[in-house]
């Protein structure tokens, strides 16, 4: 699920660098979530704060570090808050950025939209195929509307790469991950013109045999599509996805409505994910 964070607090510092600052940005939501499989409706919320320090040397080298402060609750009996997470440190110069820490894999690009105020999981049916590992070193380089990324896990030989770009109303993202027992290739195409946008994605995850596994992993492929239409402050989104794992199929669909309140969004959706009927309604905020 993609998150857009806006800075709300800045502490400006000067200590031997050309410019430096610390910002705190975040998002939060609250609402109701229903699952037929679980047989209940729960009250849930999520809080996500991002603390980021950044600066620039006199020679033009940018640097920084960030950490997330996250917590969520599903009814009062199920509260989680792991404290600080996702620590990252980066340096950047002339479009090239090196990041180390708990970072996202380079192949995690593209995908389709979910629906609802916190997401029903329609996109997970296909997106889960590219979430195959965890990397701790990453290089990003951008030029114009083109972005290239390479990431690796320094403890083994696993790596991931991606290429993303846009031309006029069209966009494309391609990613590949090479893991010890799991290789994944993905591609996403998008089109946006005026009030209408559409995205289509395909992922292919193919396994090698893991001699230590009790049950052999199965190769899988999947695809998904979403379409959105915006009129004024109202956006309607529909999404569909399916996956085939060694002949066993799973699919999901959903439709959602979001109303922009200016700094907050009222949203809800309903659909079915792997046979489980789901619905939600709530409000999201950005700080």
TrEMBL record:
<protein>
    <submittedName>
        <fullName>Porin</fullName>
    </submittedName>
</protein>
<feature type="signal peptide">
    <location>
        <begin position="1"/>
        <end position="20"/>
    </location>
</feature>
<dbReference type="Pfam" id="PF13609">
    <property type="entry name" value="Porin_4"/>
</dbReference>
<feature type="domain" description="Porin">
    <location>
        <begin position="7"/>
        <end position="275"/>
    </location>
</feature>
<dbReference type="InterPro" id="IPR033900">
    <property type="entry name" value="Gram_neg_porin_domain"/>
</dbReference>
<dbReference type="InterPro" id="IPR023614">
    <property type="entry name" value="Porin_dom_sf"/>
</dbReference>
<keyword id="KW-0732">Signal</keyword>
